[in-house]
Amino acid sequence: MFVSAHGLAHRFPGTDTLFEHLDFTIEPGHTVAICGPSGCGKSTLLSILAGWERPVEGTVERSGVDRIGWVFQNPYGVPERSALDHVVFPLLAKGERRRDAEPEAMAAMELFDLGYAAGRRFSDLSGGEAQRLMLARAVCSKPDLLLVDEPTAQLDTRTAHSVSHVLGNLAGQGMIVVVATHDPDTRDACERVIDLADYAPAGNQTSATPEREGTR
User: Residues in domain ABC transporter (predicted)?
Assistant: First the structure.
């Protein structure tokens, strides 16, 4: 199983090229951070990897990737349903019985320090709690490829550090994990970093500090 990018480049109509000449291969067991300044195309690259957006140049090859999970920057849910309902749902969708699925869902919530909120309605959760809930639900869905967009944007420093550590370990469950982030702590928790500033056209370079691709 792997995801490979070959010569990727992308721009939107009427705009400058975001990135070009982008090549990489990601295999299970690796967590990769996609970094770069605001507007450089981090979320767009996630969309391309998922197959939702077609690059203007290059191709994406997904081998053995049958299930793709996505955690959006803005969490969404059913207001009146409990937090536990949201996390247990992907397990029920696979045919598990509720009594068997709940312990697994609770374990995923505990990964993100959410056990206390299991009975709360989604509408009663804070923005940070809802964001962590989406991460717990994604873990229960057991995707082959997990795409996470700015997971710590709504979190305080302590909670963000905890979430970053968990994300850095998720690849050990056999997933390919790709995280779009501007948070240095999240970046450092990942094994590999791809900085899109390094792939911007020469006339579109920023003065941001480079975060070059490498192994950590």
Answer: 3-215
Structure tokens, 139? 């873990």
Strands 31-35 and 176-180: parallel
Cβ 70 vs Cβ 147: under 8 Å: yes
Question: Residue 32 pLDDT more than 80?
Answer: yes
Task: Tell me phi and psi for residue 39, to 5 degrees.
Answer: 85, 10
Q: Which domain holds residue 178?
A: 2-67+143-215
Same domain, 210 and 147: yes
**Stretch 16-31: mean pLDDT:** 92
Please state whether beta strands 2-10 and 57-63 pair in parallel, antiparallel, or not at all (unpaired).
Answer: antiparallel
- End-of-domain residue from the set 96, 125, 142: 142
Q: Are residues 135 and 149 located together in one domain of the fold?
A: no
> Is residue 190 over pLDDT 50?
yes
Q: How far is CA 57 from CA 23, 46, 108, 204, in A?
A: 12, 15, 38, 18
* Helix (DSSP H) and strand (DSSP E) numbers for the chain: 6, 9
Q: What is the pLDDT of residues 108-159, one digit of tens each?
A: 999 888 999 999 999 999 888 898 899 899 889 889 999 999 888 777 787 7
